[in-house]
Each structure stands twice: as C-alpha cells, then as structure tokens.
C-alpha cells in the first residue's frame, strides 16, 4: 500500500486497468492503458507485481471458498439420504468444476497484465497459478467429510451394480456363476450418455484434487462387490471352483467398468493387479473358513481344493490356513464325542487334500501334528488303523482304499530291497540332489518351528498313519491279534483274502515282522489238509458219525497271540467225539498230540422252543450251557456252575445270550438263588438268526493285556531296585532294566514302562513323587 500511495499518476492508470481485468471485465483498452502506464512509471515493478498478484490470488481463492461452502451441502438440492445425494453428485461436481475454471481464467488474465512489469519473466507468475490450484485442492479436501465420502462410495456402488446387472442381461446369464464370455465396452453396454456422465465425474474429481479419494472409494466398492460375489459363489458350495468364476467377473465387469472413466493402460494394469490380489485373499479367507467341509466332502470338493492351492501360492496365506484349520479341528473333531474311526477318516482326507495344496508337505506337518497327538491318546487308534489298512471293501467315493495304496506303492518302507540296491538308490539321489526350498517357519506358524529339510515325509497315506506312533511293531502286533480273532471266528478254511493282505503288508513292514502271521495262515492250510484226511479215514464203527459236523483248527500256539478265556466242560458225547478225533490225529502225526481249547471256536446251532426255531452262532461255552438243558429244564446257577466247571459269574455271562434271545428265563428260587429255566415259547421279538460271537469277547488277548503279561516279569526287578534305592526317575529305571535284565531280555520302550509303572501306582505298590518312583513302605 505504501508503494501505491507513493506512485505517480501513471500508477493510478495502471491500477485502474488491473482492477478492471481482475473483476472479469476483459477489454483490450485496459491492456493498452496498463502498458502505457508501465512505460511511463518509475516505481519498483517487481514488488508491485508481487503485491498485485497476491491480491488477485486471494480474491479468486475467496470466490472458490464461498462456492465450496454453498455447493457442498447437497441437502440444499432437495435430496434426502445417501442414495438421493449420490444422484446429485455429478451436477454438484460439474458446477464446482465450472466455477474453478472460471476463477482460474480470471486469475490468468490478471496475471497476464502483471507479466508486463516483469519484462517477460513469466516463470515467477506461474507459481501463483500453482498456488491457486493448491489452495483449491486444500479447500475441497478440507470440506470432505465422512458424509461426502459415503456419497461418493454410494455413487460408485450404484453404478457398478447397474453395470454388472446390465452385463448379465446382455449375455442372458441367469446366475452370477456363468461368466463365460468376453468383456464388453461400457458405451456398448450402458449407452454413451451414461459413460459420458461417469467420465465427467472422474474428470471433475481429478480437477478438484479428489482423484485419490475417487480411486480409494472405487477400490472399496470393487472389493465390497467382489466379496459379495465370492460369498454368493462359495456359500455352502465346495464343488465349484470359485476362482475361475471370480476371474471372469473381474474381466467382464470390474475392469470394463473402470475403463469407462480411465483410459491409461498403466492404471488399468495396476487396478487389475490390485483386484487379482483382493480376489485371491477373499477366496482364500472364504475357503479357509470352510476347510472342515472341504476335507469331509473330498473328492467332491476338488474345486475348493484347487482354489486353496492357488490362493496359497498367490496370497501367501499359509499361517492363516494353519491357524484356521487347527482351530476348526480342535472344535469340531478332536473331542470325546467323535469316534476314533471318524477322526482317522478325516485325517486321511486331510492328508489327501493337503498333498494337493502343498506337495512339499509343510502344511500337512503343521496341521496334522495336533491330530496325531490327539490320536495317540486314544486306546483304539492302532486297531482302527489296522482295520482300515486291511479292509478291501471298495470305497464309495471312488478313492483307493489303504489296501490298494499298499499294492500301488510297492515296497516303500519294506525290507525286501537289498543293501546294494539301497546304496545305488542313495547314490542316484545324491547325484540329482537339489536344495529344498527354504521356507520361514513363521510363515506357517509355531507348529513348524521344529520342521527342517532333514525331515523326510511319507509319500502315501499309509506312511502318515504309521507315522502317528513312529513304530511299525505296534501295528504288526495289533494286526496279529486281529488276524487271530478273524481266523478263530471262521467257519471254513477260506483264507484267500488274508493271504493277499499279508503279501501286501509284507511289502510295507517286511517279511520278518509278519513271520508269525504267516505261520498262523499256514496252520489254517495244514488244518484243512489234516481235517480232510481224518474225515476220509473215518470208520463208522468207531463212532465218527458226527465228524461231518466237526472242523478243527490246529494251532502252533507259540506263534499265536495269547489265547485267553475260561475253560469249560463240554457235554460227554461231544467230549467223546473230540477224543476220538485227537486219537486219529495222534496216529497220523505221532508223537504229537492235540490239546483242545474248549473255550475257542464257533458253534452253529438250530434251537427249537415251543415249535419256533432260531439259528444261532455262539461260542463253545455258550453252546455247552444250552446243551445242559437237554438233561433237565431248570438249573440252579451253582449246580450249572459245577456241571460246566466254571464260576457263577461266567455262567451268568454265557446265559445272558440265551436270555436275550428268549430261549432261557432267569428267576429267583425260594432261597433267593438264581435259577435258569427253558421258556415255553419264543416271543415275536425273537427269531431268525443271531450271532453272539462278538458279544462273548473272541478269546484272544489284546495288545494291552499281552503287554501287561510281558511286563509282569519285570515287576520283581523294579521292586528290588526301589528297595535298594530310595527313589528313581523313569529314565534311570529304564536304563537299569536294559543293563541288568538279560533273561528275558528287556526290549520295552520308556512309554511302555511308564504305563506299567502307572499300573503299579494304581495297585498301591509304588508311589510317584514328582518325576520319581519309590516303593510303598509297609
């Protein structure tokens, strides 16, 4: 102002011309007056130009500020709600952009006058234009609030939804999972007017400095719609490959919509990459949440498996799937309400699924560890595994059974391969060795903290099941028990399936481990031949008339597992037949002789009560009890116990089969003793056929019972140790037994010893204090 006050008459002429230009009254006469005034002036031109340019900048900025304050409140346009305001968004942005351009034009005209004072130094005045643009952007951004952001988001959501609906109508797509077509340009799909509106909105937001907000909100909307599409495809559907359909949605809808208001190829490429990543992440999260259903429904869920495989590769969600799968299995599978067979079947499906998703096996190592740890706490795990491994029933889902896997994997893990072949194979592996891919354990979670490249994972499902315990001896021992039970329950000599199973198991476990089982099958073959010979040599005068109803199995007892059961006195006529059969065998196989196990075997009886018949399959003690009622219809339990040579508890247990079948009735005598009598008739609930072999127990000692019998030998050694030492920890006892017990040689594991010591603690023979054991003081 001091400069203006000291100016000459020429300055007054220049100021008058500048004010006229600044106010928007553009006239060449003003420009000529200003030029003449400057030529005659003698003041400091640069300082005057700065003052005038700053004043012009402030004037234009104030005009924009007033326009923003007036035009930003969309309620003034009579629109209510976010959707209504979104409809008015294009009009408001166009008006604000027009105002910006008008004020910019006025500023540029005024600055053109000032250029004359700087003798062509227009670079200094260009900064004022940039400052004006920055001021406008700052004003607009300062006015942006959550309401305006939601309006912009609603606008893009409505437009993208309309575009997607039009795309489906144009291609006759009844459902969103049918995007089997190429992308269509926006103007051909929505019309030129619709596309021009989108283009104007985009240009206006970029002009006002809202380009970043526009991209952010479009990204939010695209992600929201993408999640809706993925959810609609994948909800309760693990058969469809969602990634394929989602990619087609991005190609057919999302990118063509973005191309309506963006023409830069680099931006489109960038957006495609962003949408692809969001797609892999969204599909990965959805499939991870339904991982349990994917495992249960495999192989029908192959589409979801392929989705997970691609998402893990592209989005690197390894730690997330480990955490999610571990939590789901803990809640839905690893609890007391789930049967061991169901847990194992789920684990088998998990193995097959994860071998497809992650062939390296690191995911399986992390996810399967808690399942294996839980299965080791189940007592029937080994029996269930062996049952599955020896079951040759075709699978309903078309997948190979474990027995078929044994046949297809050959001698992996077996002992049939010679040392030279093993050395040659090792040399071949060494010559073609390549370093394994290094994966950070943190990527998969803490479950992989101990995993390293040195861990060799099995190649098939059977190997993983055996790896639950890490020892094949447990499985071989359990199979030996199960084979004995199956053979002793047979009514004929057909062992073709068992022989085939043994041959397949030998490929996995080796011939030496299954030697006892081979002897058991050989016993059956020899028994068939001997039985046929004895029956062919039968002389009717010697009383062999009932041999056609008698089939014997001659066991090499030292190769069979423990044969438990209570001995029983058989009826005299049956005992006579057995003795005659044994004498014939003694003649044939002298000096060997038969020792009958009366509690083992199978008896088929046709029982008639009151004119009704039932066919039953029972054990010899159960048959002997019923045959005692041929002599009298009522038996006291003590008398029946004396006749059969067994305890009353066994008598009642055997009688329960006949009581449940309606043949016998249990009552009380006058002296309150238990009495059994034959029923007069069979009720309608009874009849037909009945199998009571499983209910009687089978007669073969379980692995736990055999282990207890074997460990009982070492009880005196353990008591002696704890007599000489006040207390000893488990490892010390284990090492001392290995050092000093030679006959029988101590070959048990520390886990088996711990189980036996726990049994001695429950029997009050030992006391456990912390981690040490000591003898109970008397």
Describe the structure.
Helices cover 62% and strands 5% of the residues. It is mainly alpha-helical and 778 residues long. A three-stranded mixed sheet has the order 1-2-6. The chain has a three-stranded antiparallel sheet with strand order 3-5-4. The chain contains 33 helices and nine strands.
Share of helix among residues? Answer: 55-70%
Please tell me the overall pLDDT. Answer: 77
- The total of helices stands at 33
Radius of gyration in whole Å, from Cα? 46 Å
What are the low-pLDDT stretches, counting only 5+ consecutive residues below 50?
1-8, 74-78, 413-427, 435-454, 541-545
**Percentage beta strand:** 5-15%
Task: Give the strand order, joined by hyphens, for the main sheet.
Answer: 1-2-6
For the termini, the CA-CA separation is 115 Å
Short description:
It is built from 33 helices and 9 strands. It has 778 residues and is mainly alpha-helical.
Please give a handful of descriptors for the protein shown.
62% helix; elongated; mainly alpha; 778 residues; 9 strands; 3-stranded mixed beta sheet
Summarize the topology.
Elements (H helix, E strand, L loop, with lengths): L1 H4 L3 H14 L5 H13 L4 H27 L9 H34 L7 H22 L2 H26 L14 H5 L1 H16 L3 H24 L7 H20 L3 H25 L1 H7 L4 H14 L2 H15 L7 H18 L4 H14 L5 H9 L12 H8 L9 H13 L29 H6 L5 H17 L7 H14 L5 H22 L35 H17 L14 E7 L2 E7 L1 H8 L6 E3 H8 L3 H13 L3 E5 L5 E5 L9 E4 L1 H4 L6 H9 L3 H10 L3 E2 H11 L9 H13 L3 E4 L2 E4 L3
Parallel strand pairs: 2-6
Antiparallel strand pairs: 1-2, 3-5, 4-5, 7-9, 8-9
Helix pairs in contact: 2-3, 2-5, 4-5, 4-6, 5-6, 5-7, 5-9, 7-10, 7-11, 9-10, 10-11, 10-12, 11-12, 12-14, 15-17, 16-17, 18-22, 22-24, 26-28, 27-28
């Amino acid at each position: 102002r001091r400069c203006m006050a000291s100016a000459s008459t020429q300055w007054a002429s220049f100021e008058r011309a500048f004010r006229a230009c600044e106010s928007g009254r553009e006239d060449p006469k003003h420009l000529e007056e200003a030029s003449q005034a400057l030529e005659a002036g003698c003041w400091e031109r640069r300082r005057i130009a700065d003052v005038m340019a700053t004043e012009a900048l402030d004037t234009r900025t104030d005009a924009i500020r007033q326009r923003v304050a007036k035009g930003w409140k969309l309620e003034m346009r009579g629109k209510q709600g976010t959707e209504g305001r979104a409809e008015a968004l294009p009009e408001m942005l166009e008006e604000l952009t027009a105002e910006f351009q008008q004020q910019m034009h006025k500023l540029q005209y005024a600055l053109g006058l000032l250029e004359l004072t700087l003798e062509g130094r227009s670079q200094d005045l260009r900064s004022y234009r940039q400052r004006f643009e920055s001021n406008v952007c700052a004003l607009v951004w300062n006015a942006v609030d959550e309401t305006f952001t939601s309006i912009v988001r609603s606008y893009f959501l409505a437009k993208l939804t309309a575009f997607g609906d039009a795309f489906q109508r144009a291609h006759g797509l009844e459902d969103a999972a049918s995007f089997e077509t190429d992308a269509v340009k926006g103007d051909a799909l929505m019309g030129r007017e619709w596309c021009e509106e989108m283009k104007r909105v985009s240009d206006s937001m970029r002009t006002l400095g809202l380009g970043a907000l526009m991209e952010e909100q479009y990204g939010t909307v695209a992600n929201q719609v993408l999640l809706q599409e993925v959810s609609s495809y994948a909800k309760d559907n693990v058969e469809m490959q969602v990634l394929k359909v989602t990619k087609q949605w991005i190609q057919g809808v999302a990118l063509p919509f973005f191309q309506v208001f963006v023409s830069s190829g680099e931006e489109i490429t960038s957006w495609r990459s962003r949408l692809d990543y969001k797609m892999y992440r969204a599909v990965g999260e959805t499939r991870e949440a339904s991982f349990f259903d994917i495992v249960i429904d495999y192989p029908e869920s192959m589409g979801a498996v392929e989705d997970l495989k691609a998402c893990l590769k592209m989005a690197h969600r390894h730690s997330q799937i480990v955490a999610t799968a571990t939590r789901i299995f803990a809640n839905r599978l690893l609890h007391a309400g789930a049967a061991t067979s169901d847990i194992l079947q789920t684990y088998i499906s998990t193995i097959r699924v994860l071998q497809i998703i992650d062939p390296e096996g690191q995911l399986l190592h992390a996810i399967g560890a808690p399942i294996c740890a839980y299965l080791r706490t189940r007592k029937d795990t080994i029996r269930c595994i062996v049952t599955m491994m020896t079951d040759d029933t075709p699978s309903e889902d078309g997948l190979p059974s474990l027995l078929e896997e044994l046949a297809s994997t050959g001698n992996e893990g077996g002992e049939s391969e010679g040392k030279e072949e093993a050395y040659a194979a090792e040399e071949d592996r060494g010559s073609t060795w390549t370093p394994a891919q290094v994966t950070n354990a943190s990527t998969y979670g803490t479950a992989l903290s101990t995993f390293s490249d040195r861990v060799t994972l099995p190649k098939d499902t059977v190997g993983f099941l055996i790896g639950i315990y890490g020892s094949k001896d447990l499985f071989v021992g359990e199979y030996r028990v199960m084979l004995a039970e199956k053979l002793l329950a047979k009514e004929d000599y057909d062992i073709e399936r068992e022989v085939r199973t043994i041959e397949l198991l030998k490929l996995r476990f080796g011939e030496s481990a299954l030697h006892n089982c081979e002897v058991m099958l050989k016993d059956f073959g020899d028994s068939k031949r001997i039985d046929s010979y004895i029956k062919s040599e039968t002389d009717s005068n010697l009383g062999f008339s009932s041999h056609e109803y008698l089939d014997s199995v001659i066991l090499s007892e030292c190769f069979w597992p423990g044969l438990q059961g209570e001995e029983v006195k058989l009826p005299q006529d049956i005992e006579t037949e057995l003795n005659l059969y044994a004498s014939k065998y003694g003649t044939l196989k002298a000096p060997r002789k038969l020792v009958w196990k009366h509690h083992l075997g199978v008896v088929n009886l046709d029982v008639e009560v009151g004119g009704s018949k039932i066919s039953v399959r029972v054990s010899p003690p159960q048959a002997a009890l019923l045959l005692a009622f041929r002599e009298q219809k009522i038996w006291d339990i003590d008398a029946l116990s004396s006749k059969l040579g067994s305890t009353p508890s066994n008598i009642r247990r055997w009688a329960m089969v006949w009581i449940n079948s309606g043949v016998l009735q249990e009552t009380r005598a006058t002296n309150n003793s238990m009495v059994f009598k034959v029923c007069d008739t069979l009720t309608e609930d009874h009849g037909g056929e009945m199998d009571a072999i499983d209910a009687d127990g089978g007669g073969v000692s379980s692995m736990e019972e055999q282990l207890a019998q074997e460990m009982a030998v070492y009880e005196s050694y353990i008591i002696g140790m704890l007599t000489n030492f006040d207390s000893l920890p488990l490892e010390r006892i284990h090492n001392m037994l290995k050092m000093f017990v030679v006959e029988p040689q101590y070959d048990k594991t520390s886990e088996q010893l711990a189980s036996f010591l726990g049994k001695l603690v429950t029997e009050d023979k030992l006391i456990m204090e912390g981690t040490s054991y000591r003898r109970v003081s008397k």
